[in-house]
């Protein structure tokens, strides 16, 4: 299944260090249940390994086709879907969001209050634009940020909690009742913005969001195991999900009883998908190849080029603009495009890398990055929430780039 790594400029001996390191530090110590690492370079899979258990209680080994919750690795897929509509002239990045969600026209910015008192608001400096949703400068937030009374209200209304009840429509209605955290375009905050994009895909295309992704992205790319739930007959391939606990891990979601076994009422473009490493590789290869794969053109090469530029105001990086207490990236030297983080200055990240590489990750410690200059894709799968608990993503980057010859 894999090429000889030396043929694509990688050392097989050094690639084996990845599995040795993860086995020793994370699997043998019970810190994570399993690890799947896929390294693709110059048209070939150079390394694809699967170690550990997909389900610890049932002693079920992880397999190459194990299905994982990819959480926020859903965001790049939703962003690509939205940009298909931009390409068709159905929506533009500089349009105000309230053009498509009229109830949001008079959203105010948080100025105090909340909890047992009404929110005080002030007028935003400018309206929220479509581009703000794609680059997380919208003023929206996530309930798990736990920094203001606004995100407390998100938690109370269960906005953005993908395993709870509700619909895309009820999320939009709920957000209309709450103030923004900040004036759009003035800060970066990880948020439900990409869930709003999913709602807009549905509204603008006239097709249910989940059906749109199936027909416009998953089917053309041959992503047969990617969806918002685990399809009948595939349940045995679905991994368990865990939380860190004293002395190891505790079960967070039992695959035999998981909500993911049924189609959800809330179809989350920000974090609702399950997938496999092989499926996600097809998505990444399409992006690296300028928007097409095996004859299926998903978007234009110029759209991919635009999406993978830094779009943060004034060319700033995330530390200069971020309000988040949580994110899928290490900030220093990293900007943000339209659905991806973008490396601007590898020296400031203090790990090996390349200017222009782009990436993202998911809450259960999954991650990927694409390095166009090196023709490299790396995908990592496991199932441990939260993703920030261990530095495995940074360690993986060092190990992969150290395998270059």
Outline the structure in words.
This protein is of the alpha+beta class. It has two domains: 5-81 and 208-401, DD-peptidase/beta-lactamase superfamily (Beta-lactamase), CATH 3.40.710.10; 93-205, Up-down Bundle (Methane Monooxygenase Hydroxylase, Chain G, domain 1), CATH 1.20.58. Helix content is 29%, strand content 18%. It has twelve helices and 16 strands. The strands form five sheets. An eight-stranded antiparallel beta sheet has the order 3-2-1-16-15-14-13-12, sandwiched between helices. The chain has a two-stranded antiparallel ribbon with strand order 4-9. A two-stranded antiparallel ribbon has the order 5-6. A hairpin with a 2-residue loop joins strand 10 (292-293) and strand 11. Helix 1 (12-27) packs antiparallel against helix 12 (392-401), helix 2 packs parallel to helix 6 (193-205) and helix 5 (168-175) packs across helix 6 (193-205). The longest helix has 16 residues, at 12-27. The chain is globular, with a radius of gyration of 20 Å. The relative contact order is 0.17. The mean pLDDT is 94.
Which key terms come to mind for this protein?
8-stranded antiparallel sheet; alpha+beta; 29% helix; Beta-lactamase; 405 residues; 2 domains; two-stranded antiparallel sheet; 12 helices
Mean pLDDT: 94
| Spatial ordering of strands, largest sheet | 3-2-1-16-15-14-13-12
- The total number of structural domains is 2
**Helix count, per DSSP?**
12
Q: Can you summarize the main beta sheet?
A: 8 strands, antiparallel
The CATH C-level name of the largest domain is Alpha Beta
Give the strand tally: 16
Q: How much is the radius of gyration in Å?
A: 20 Å
Name of the CATH superfamily of the largest domain: DD-peptidase/beta-lactamase superfamily
Helix content: 25-40%
Structural class estimated from helices and strands = alpha+beta
> What string gives the helices and strands in order?
HEEEEHEEHHHHHEEEHEEHHEEHEEEH
CATH-scheme architecture of the largest domain: 3-Layer(aba) Sandwich
Shape: globular
**Unreliable sequence segments:** none
Strand content: 15-25%
According to CATH, the fold-level topology of the largest domain is Beta-lactamase
Head-to-tail CA distance between termini = 21 Å
């Amino acid at each position: 299944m894999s090429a000889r790594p030396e043929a694509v400029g990688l050392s097989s001996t050094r690639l084996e260090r990845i599995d040795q390191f993860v086995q020793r530090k994370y699997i043998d110590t019970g810190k994570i249940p399993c690890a799947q690492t896929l390294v693709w370079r110059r048209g070939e899979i150079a390394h694809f390994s699967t170690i550990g258990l997909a389900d610890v209680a049932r002693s079920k080994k992880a397999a190459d086709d194990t299905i994982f919750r990819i959480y926020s690795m859903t965001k790049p897929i939703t962003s690509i879907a939205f940009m298909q509509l931009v390409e068709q002239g159905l929506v533009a990045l500089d349009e105000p969001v309230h053009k498509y969600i009229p109830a949001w026209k008079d959203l105010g910015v948080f100025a105090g209050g909340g909890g047992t008192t009404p929110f005080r608001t002030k007028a935003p400096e400018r309206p929220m634009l479509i581009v703000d949703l794609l680059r997380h400068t919208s003023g929206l937030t996530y309930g798990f940020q736990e920094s203001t009374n606004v995100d407390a209200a998100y938690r109370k209304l269960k906005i953005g909690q993908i395993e709870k009840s509700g619909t895309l429509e009820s999320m939009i209605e709920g957000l209309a009742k709450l103030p923004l955290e900040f004036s759009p375009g003035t800060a970066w905050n990880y948020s439900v913005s990409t869930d709003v994009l999913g709602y807009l895909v549905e509204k603008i295309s006239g097709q249910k969001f989940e059906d749109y992704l199936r027909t416009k992205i998953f089917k053309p790319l041959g992503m047969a195991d990617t969806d918002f739930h685990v399809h009948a007959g595939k349940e045995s391939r679905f991994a368990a999900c865990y939380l860190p606990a004293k002395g190891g891990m505790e079960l967070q979601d039992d695959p035999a009883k998981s909500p993911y076994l049924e189609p959800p009422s809330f179809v989350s473009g920000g974090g609702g998908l399950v997938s496999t490493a092989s499926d996600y590789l097809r998505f990444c290869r399409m992006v690296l190849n300028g928007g097409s794969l095996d004859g299926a053109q998903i978007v234009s090469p110029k759209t991919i080029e635009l999406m993978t530029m830094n779009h943060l105001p004034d060319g700033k990086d995330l530390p200069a603009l971020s309000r988040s207490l949580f994110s899928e990236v290490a900030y220093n030297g990293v900007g943000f495009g339209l659905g991806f983080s973008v490396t601007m200055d590898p020296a400031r990240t203090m790990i090996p890398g390349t200017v222009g590489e782009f990436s993202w990750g998911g809450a259960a410690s999954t991650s990927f990055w694409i390095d166009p200059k090196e023709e490299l894709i790396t995908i990592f799968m496991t199932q441990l929430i939260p993703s920030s608990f261990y530095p495995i993503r940074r360690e993986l980057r060092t190990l992969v780039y150290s395998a270059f010859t």
